[in-house]
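Field: COMPLEX_INPUT
Field: COMPONENT_COUNT = two
Field: RESIDUE_TOTAL = 804
Field: MODE = joint
Values follow.
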Amino acid sequence: MEDRESAIICVQCQIPLKLETVRFAYLGHEFTQDLPRCPKCGQVFISEALATGKMAEVEEMMEEK
Amino acid sequence: MDEKLIFPSQCIQGTPPACSCSCPFNLDIKSMIERIKSGNFNAAYRLFANRVVFPETVGLLCPAPCKTACCADIQIGLLEKACLDLAARKGPIKYALPEKDQTVAVIGSGISGLACARQLSAKKYRVTIFSQEREPGGSLLCHPHADLIRSDIAEQFRYCDYHFVGETEIASLDGLNFDAVYIATGSGGNDFGLLSSWDPQSMATGQTGVFLGGSITGADKMEALSQGITAAANMEYYLQTGMMSGQPSAAIVKESLIPPRENADRTSIIPGNGAGYTEREAKDEASRCLMCDCTLCRDGCEYLKYYHVFPRVAEEKASKVVQRSLWKHEGAREVFACGACGSCGGFCPRHLSLEDIMLQAKADLFDVNGFPPPLHEYFINDMNNAMGECYVAKAAPGHQTASCLLFPGCQISQTAPDITETAYAYLLGLYPDTGLILGCCGVPALWAGDRKLFHETLAKLGSSLLQLGSPTLITLCSTCRKTIDRYLPDVKTRSIYQVLAEKGLPAAAYPINGRFDIFDPCASREYPEDQLAVRKIARELGAGLGVLEYEGEQARCCGMGGHIFPANKQLAVNTVKRAAAMSDHPYLAYCANCRNLFTSVGKQCRHILEFALGAEPVAGMPHISQLRENRRRLRRKLLQRYWGEVVEEPMETNELKLRISPELYHKMNWHLIAEEEVRLVIQNGETTGKKLYHQDTGLFTSSLKIGMVTCWVDYFPEDDGSYTVANVYSHRISFTEER
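Field: COMPLEX_OUTPUT
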């Protein structure tokens, strides 16, 4: 993911994404995570590895909470 | 124990097998053998000694009826001997219990009286043994190995205080001032007039506080000993509660409920020295034990196998999940991973099923928000589509009411629309006033635990049926039929398979060439007449039919039942793969879900109605966007053809053209992402400009939250204005772009 991050451009703002804190919410739980996002408009990128890996694990965990 | 639970009192799993039931002591032979198998002879000895009280004596005298009862001819007697020979720690246990004030008289010092006295004195009751003899032991002292017996008795009483009154005959109970009495006066001994009121289960007599057992009842030596042990347990219960009924758990069970294993290997290991096993020999012989139990439900059900539970535990767990669901959802996923297909009831010799228990648990969890909504979102949306924009309820053209009505169900209509079309044409040919409902029976809501939505769906169906003159519903799907029969009991139902078998096949039917095996859907268990009809049709069409391990009343789930897929993907895969592996031959299915699921894992499977109605063959596994489109198209086609209603097709001029590879379609199906959702994501990216560009790959990425799911698409535009979709993935956690 880190490899792709430096090469990801926000098309709207024409600037590269940078690691920033992003707020997440699921089934009433909230948490934060540092992810690549556009410093200007806030557009976020979530890679497939993250979505199907750690995020899927957290989803399952929260569905059991 | 929760009194509402069904399995603890009715399920036979875990009840004593034949060996234990043939044992006068109901010794837990399986547990003893487990310990021997792992080389733990001390633990095996302890289990044996605790149960039989005088282990050396039992080892010497027991004729081992267990050996005859064992289906694998395990040498249980020799294994007991191995415990006696090989255990390093054999001394009795010294219990640190307080002395009790209550007094017990034991009349008779044979093996039965001694067993009772040993057990109660070990619990620190004040025990007095009255005997006509000079020393305890009774007729056992005449045995050639009396010394061994004598030392066993002495050893087992090592930490027990009791008072022995020898050379004394008790002529009447009247003068005895004890809190409880055990009469064990031996064969032909004085029964004090109580034998006629003796209860062989509890050892109690008609006189309060007085128990009786041993050879006086006609018991042999081992039974006499066992009766002394049972009497002691029930005398203690009496001393504590004043009740003479005894504890049910102390009663000896003589009949096993466990079905015997057939064709077991009966080759026992013979001790090399001809007398007793070495440690290795004992372990090997113990390893031959088949651990007899009733496991039919778990043998057939992947759910029970996956979670390593029997229904008794699954029921208890579900009950606990519901109880604590107000504050946590732990275990909810496990409840929703059960398909509630009821197959376990088909496998069970007592027809005990988890189906209603799990459906209730799902509904209870749903009611208290203990249900993770993403687990069923896709299927509920699909149902709402079938009952909403795609719903059709019509009398036949030119009719106001119907005597019968085709209810194909939501799945076949979208998998194989031509089957619905040909079925309707066929039925109209037979019964010109056949009505039609394109909709859903509501089972997705039932499986999701959403009773409100389920009953709303049923109410909509019920109201349509009433308007159409309460026709007989002709179903293509067993699950629809089962759901309607259970929850709309006033509606008459019949399957199209019965109609075809009875009225004959249409001219368009085409032959089934070669060998197929019929895969009965889980709900067909309730309709043996449908199962027969399907076989009749298949044979008429020329199919060579085999027999599957699980079929007929033991029909099992294909993996789709209960929509368990999002709750436990691996379990769904295990289920379909195992169902597919029952035969190398292609399957004939009569459920669209079975057909689709088998096809998705590469198993050749055809719907029998393709042949029987002469419908277009369905190729491969349709992707989920096709399924939705099929349903819309079928509705448009039928409304136009039979009722002359023109339904305008959606404007497609502005619709983005997508290029999606078959592999990616497969992946999208797996993740329940439809093409139209991918289109929405790209459209959103393109119209708002909110998209990302990857300099390394030249791909664009866009995302959109649709319902509870955020869908991500990697894509690039082609010169012709279309878009090639390179990858699709999704997640349920949502994020905010606000800082």
